[in-house]
Predict the structure.
Amino acid sequence: MSRRRAVLAALAATALGAGAGQLAGLALDPGTGPVDVVAERVVALTPPAVAELATVGAGLGSRTTVVAGVLVVLALVAALAGAVSGRSERPGMWLLAGTGVLAVLGALTAPGAGQLDPLPSAVALLVAVTMFRRLHRLARRIPAPTAQGTLPDGRPMRESLTRRRFLRSSALAGAGGIVAGTGAAWGAPRLPSGRIGEARTALTARLDALAGEGRIARAATVPAGAGFPGGTAFTTPVADFYRIDTALRLPAVDPDGWRLRVHGMVERELELTLDDVLRRPLVERWVTLACVSNEVGGDLVSTTRFTGIELAPLLAAAGPDPAADQVLSTSADGWTAGSPSQIVLDPARGALLAVGMDGAALPVEHGFPARLVVPGLYGYVSATKWVTGIELTTFAQRQDYWRVRGWAPPGPMETASRIDAPGPYARVPAGPVTVTGTAFAVPRGISRVEVGVDGDDGNVVWTDAELAPVPAGGVTWRMWRCVLDLPPGGYTLWCRATDGDGAVQTGQVRSPLPGAATGWDSRSVTVVG
Ligand SMILES: Nc1nc2c(c(=O)[nH]1)N[C@H]1C(S)=C(S)[C@@H](COP(=O)(O)O)O[C@H]1N2
Ligand SMILES: [Mo]
């Protein structure tokens, strides 16, 4: 039979199988569809060389990219399955079945997988293989064309009823698969809803009540002028707070069942419920959180007011072994972060087990019901969301999620600064030009920001920027503003910050992996007369 028909049969059957599997996944538990499962495993097993891609934007953009990549590979495998099945259906069946088995294995090995999770992948496998056999059989019954390219009785090929049935069935299967798959993606809730949503509302109400009873040590208020008009707001709205997570499916952690275990090299293990946490002294703290993969001038940095309990005294209560130099925290999704004990156990650093953000319970995407926040450490080695375990161990013994994938061990946060306005290639009227931006060096703080103007003659002239006030006791970024008098012409604007220790931000350009990026942010602008 024709190889083209075998390829068509395999593609159509695979689409139907994948679509059916995705629908089954939606019915069972969003995220357990075979495509989601494989995409999630791809991210989890990404080798160091491409790890950067996964970190930089595990936001929505890269999720879509990973899923699209999985679909392209799936289509190629299906085409191959058809191409090798010109004679018999067997090779293609095995290839499709093997692909299905991979998805089943992926579902079985996902961290926190439920017993039923492999079911949607099994459905996909069965549907694809069965459909492929049916279509292949149908295609084999299409009469071979004569030397003239007609049916044996002389009529044109397209009048073959079997051929029509084959084409119609293939089209129906393919279209059905696409509709089912798209429908499942469309119908999938973007966040764990229902029960978890209610639990979140309940926790917010409890935090409100505790605040009302004066049981939460309030953070200083944000001084007026902490942000400049036209610049970035001091407080990042929760909806705009940057987001990095390796899990394609957000963990749905029920706070009633949630436990935090403190274990490893400790004198006594601790296990806390959420009630235990809320009984401890609660504090609020303004913290700027940054991602190590933030590019120079990038926006993987945000600031909010976290509510939680101090981590240092909590861990001290477990009696950590002084030899344990690493605090390895684990998420419900299997992700891990290794922080230096010296920093986490230092009460002055103010590491938190946070349950709230911007006055409400943590949103699911930011770690509900609890996460870690360690001022001055990049998120990849400290900010474990959906945290369930804290193990005292050593860096020699255990490597965290991103260490294994080639990222550097935790280091101090680089001093960074960014121009927020004017925008890139902006055309601004001549006269006073207001340049605004932000700078951060947690926990050292920012003592100075300078704006450089690189004129047509190539000389950079630096001018001191005005620094905005920041809330007392915070470990945050600092907004700045600089008004320059620029005659018409083309300019490159630069900015550089000096941290609280008096060290000037390095201008040496370095891209993120394996550590944080360095270098000065710049903008080309035109001043028009
Ligand atoms: N469970 C889990 N926690 C995680 C991550 C993750 O992928 N999974 N990403 C970390 C990284 S790299 C950063 S920068 C911060 C980002 O926190 P946010 O998403 O709340 O901004 O979370 C950290 N905590
Ligand atoms: Mo990160």
Residues 28 and 117 are 8 Å apart (CA to CA).
